[in-house]
């Protein structure tokens, strides 16, 4: 079995927020492991705390207690520029208005490494070209970013994250707004990239059936617990049956998918 390196771990992590002088705990005592070469899906019902977990793992939000360890160092010890060399983040927000071409957008992934002039070195161009080749977006490079489809833009943003060349890539719902064909192509691309580059890729998604089929591991959040395991083990443990508190949605353990009853 291949030797996988732990890139990010959490130690007794409690996540949540402070409101009116009180702490609202969303999930507690989380001990997660994100390892090299793994594609990991984060799933759970709406409002369960997936975004809070992602914000905490990426140092956008402080934990209520416990630690997030990135490459053997507590994440809050990183300077911003150094953090950007260890972790890249792909969000679903619309890009701000600009005339950037696809090539220029991908090249922005080198910002953590360029000098104050933003001048690209030979190594920067090499990383950019590798990302373009891995994601097969050569035909889009001269287009403005607003001239391409949502599905194409999602692939371009993944290419930008690859250009950033971090051991960990975290994506917040990368398949939102995409049709089934483009959802599958994004999932398959992420799977391919985790295997070919050895990077760990964590993504949140509502497409649970697809995630079960294509992920190496899943982190499943419910009101009672947070599990991390391989999809087949989670099915065996009956974890998915407790995901939605609705009698019309049941999980078929034998088929490995959700069934909707009328």
UniProtKB/TrEMBL annotation:
Keywords: ATP-binding, Cell membrane, Ion transport, Iron, Iron transport, Membrane, Nucleotide-binding, Transport. The keyword Nucleotide-binding applies. The keyword ATP-binding applies. Gene3D superfamilies: P-loop containing nucleotide triphosphate hydrolases. This is ABC transporter ATP-binding protein. It comes from the Bacteria. PROSITE patterns: ABC_TRANSPORTER_2 (PS50893). InterPro entries: AAA+_ATPase (IPR003593), ABC_transporter-like_ATP-bd (IPR003439), P-loop_NTPase (IPR027417), Siderophore_ABC-ATPase (IPR051535). It is found in: Cell membrane. It is a peripheral membrane protein. SUPFAM superfamilies: P-loop containing nucleoside triphosphate hydrolases. Residues 8-248 form the ABC transporter domain. One of its GO terms (molecular function) is ATP binding.
């Amino acid at each position: 079995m291949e030797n996988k390196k732990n890139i990010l771990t959490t130690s007794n992590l409690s996540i949540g927020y402070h409101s009116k002088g009180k702490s609202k705990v969303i999930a507690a005592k989380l001990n997660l492991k994100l390892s090299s070469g793994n594609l990991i899906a984060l799933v759970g019902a709406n409002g369960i705390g997936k975004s809070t977990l992602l914000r905490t793992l990426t140092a956008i939000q402080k934990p209520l207690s416990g630690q997030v360890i990135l490459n053997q160092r507590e994440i809050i010890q990183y300077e911003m520029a150094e953090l950007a060399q260890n972790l890249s983040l792909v969000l679903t927000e619309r890009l701000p208005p600009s005339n950037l071409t696809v090539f220029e957008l991908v090249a922005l992934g080198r910002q953590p490494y360029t000098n104050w002039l933003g001048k690209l070195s030979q190594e920067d161009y090499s990383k950019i070209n590798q990302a373009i080749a891995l994601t097969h977006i050569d035909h889009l490079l001269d287009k403005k970013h607003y001239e391409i489809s949502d599905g194409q833009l999602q692939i371009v943003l993944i290419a930008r994250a690859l250009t950033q060349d971090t051991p960990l890539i975290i994506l917040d719902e990368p398949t939102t707004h995409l049709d089934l064909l483009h959802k599958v192509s994004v999932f398959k691309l992420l799977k391919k990239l985790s295997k070919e580059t050895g990077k760990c890729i964590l993504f949140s998604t509502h497409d649970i059936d697809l995630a079960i089929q294509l992920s190496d591991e899943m982190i499943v959040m419910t009101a009672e617990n947070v599990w991390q395991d391989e999809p087949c083990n989670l099915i065996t443990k009956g974890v998915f049956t407790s995901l939605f508190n609705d009698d019309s949605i049941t999980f078929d353990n034998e088929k490995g998918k959700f069934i909707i009853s009328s």
